[in-house]
Design a protein that fits this description.
By secondary structure, the protein is α+β, with helices and mostly antiparallel strands. About 50% of the residues lie in helices and about 20% in strands. Helix 4 runs antiparallel to helix 10. About 30% of the residues are buried.
Amino acid sequence: MYDLLFANPIVSFIFALSVLVFFHELGHYWVARRNGVKVEVFSIGFGPELFGWNDKAETRWKVCAMPFGGYVKMFGDSDAASSGVNEDETRPFTDEEKAVSFHYKSLGARAAIVAAGPIANFILAAVLFALLYMAVGVPEKFHAGIGEVVSGSAAEEAGLQKGDLVVSLAGKQLDSFDELRTIIMENPSTQLGAIVLRDGKELSLTITPKAKESGDKTIGLLGVRPDPDQAEYIRYNPVTAVWMGVERTYNMSAQILSHLGTLISGGGSMKDLGGPLRIAQVSGDAAKSGFDNLIYLMAVLSVNLGLINLFPIPMLDGGHLVFYAFEAIRGKPLSEKAQEYGFRLGLTLVLGLMVFATWNDLVQLKVFDFIKQLFT
């Protein structure tokens, strides 16, 4: 059943994205309702409605045909992006309508409602990480198992294969992958006898680590990665797991911002910027390797979604918060024309980024080469 539902990259991508969007919009919705704002629409996806229902608070909950986002439309909004007030031109809002309108709430309430979406994504990420720490655990010790062999490496030349377990090396019994790494690094260009367990049978191989200069010394390289299936995992209690989840979310956010700063300063490659196609591919790969890997990927994407929405770009939550900061400083909102220009600029930036990221996906995934082969 799992393979039927999630092995397909499109299905796993839609599932992951829908969950992340739902919690993001739920953050906006929950804080809005706590502040007495009437929510007219809670939508997962855009375009034609596939199905939906109305609750007692007169909110329309619906799922739409294009599952690439979502929105919460509050009473008084001119559109789903909350870009302005939609007051009936024939009459002003009544006091009762103003009481449930987003744009007539205090500055603090509006800022809290807007910030709640990204915060919900950070909370979701921390919870997902915590669930993994409790249910799956963290690899505390890797045995000397081979998870991946790098092409052209000393490991490939020696005949090592994925799934092998290196029992001994240079006459020493191995208890962990760290012991394997230490012996390899200390013996560059040296022939080392190895006993390898493969499919229940012991094999004798000769491994010659390749030499590499590292600082003022020469080290040996094997060219393998540890096998996660041959590791000892430790599970944590709920309190420790939650704390670790929060810490992991914070550290990952800092790493993403640091990497972004490197890209902006020209120190990285824009080829690393992925879009929906890359995410779909990664989601499919994660789902095929197990539900826990899909959950981990969702936690990572949730951190990314929270950070992206906090960028100071109009159309995004961070752009709204910037407008509110100006309102707090000036004592009144920016003019409608200034906000309109801001939203237009924001829309241009967001669309441009989406086009660039999608183009990157097409190039990196070699889609153009595949299409060319179809017609040659």
